[in-house]
Specification:
This protein has 211 residues and is of the alpha/beta class. It is built from five helices and ten strands; from the N terminus they run E-H-E-H-E-H-E-H-E-E-E-E-E-E-H. The protein has helices at 15-22, 43-51, 68-78, 91-98, 199-210; strands spanning 6-10, 28-32, 58-63, 82-85, 103-110, 128-133, 159-162, 181-186, 191-193, 196-197. It is globular. Pathway: Amino-acid biosynthesis; L-tryptophan biosynthesis; L-tryptophan from chorismate: step 3/5.
């Protein structure tokens, strides 16, 4: 790549593992607030640890079709700076969250037939798009889509790439040179089990991306 990508590590829930990942100094750490996810955060297990994270690590709350009221409540409880909306949230919801001085990401599930016109109504309401692989449910599939399709995107809003990113396909990120990509979002390919990140694999990732 012609620039250094930001790294978001998503889907942690265990206290010690959260601290181990934080020691690697990712740009973002993602916490999933969706009950159907095996990586769903429980307040009793993680609140104190998440609140103690260094300010330079941006804390992202991942939500799926959650009410504005509950998103705001969770943001305040966990001291989140960023919200990632992974469901069918409207541009209006995004705009109302931005008014609260939050960084807002809107996720889209992408396959070969994805129509990037879908993104247009969100262009003035979010800080970033997240392009993930379309599949059953809302992410965490560990599968990639054909990244070449991102060349059809108008690049007006910066984007983070998610979906099956691993140590084995990092070199393929070269395909995205010249596009408005700002970072990558890693999850299941760097886990021992859902919610438990493999620190050794993450260390290798950080070395390769930050080199």
């Amino acid at each position: 790549m012609d620039k250094t990508l930001e790294i978001k590590v998503c889907g942690m829930r265990n206290t010690q593992n959260i601290l181990e990942v934080a020691a690697l100094k990712p740009d973002y750490m993602g916490f999933i607030f969706f009950e159907k996810s095996p990586r769903n955060v429980t307040e009793t297990a993680s609140l104190e640890t998440i609140l103690s994270l260094p300010k330079e690590i941006k804390k992202v709350g991942v939500f799926v079709n959650e009410s504005l009221e509950n998103i705001v409540k969770t943001v305040r409880t966990f001291g989140l700076s960023t919200v990632q909306l992974h469901g069918n949230e409207s541009p209006d919801i995004c705009k109302r969250l931005k008014v609260l001085k939050l960084e807002v990401w809107k996720a889209f599930s992408v396959d070969q037939n994805f129509d990037f016109e879908t993104c247009k109504s969100y262009e003035n309401t979010v800080d970033r798009f997240l392009f993930d692989t379309k599949g059953d449910g809302y992410g965490g599939h560990g599968k990639t889509f054909d990244w070449n399709i991102l060349k059809k995107y108008n690049q007006h809003v910066p984007f983070t790439l998610a979906g099956g990113i691993s140590l084995e396909n990092l070199t393929d990120l070269q395909l995205l040179d010249g596009l408005n990509i700002t970072g990558i979002d890693v999850n299941s390919k760097f886990e021992n089990s859902p919610g438990d990140k493999n620190i050794e694999k993450l260390q290798t990732l950080f070395e390769k991306i930050k080199a």
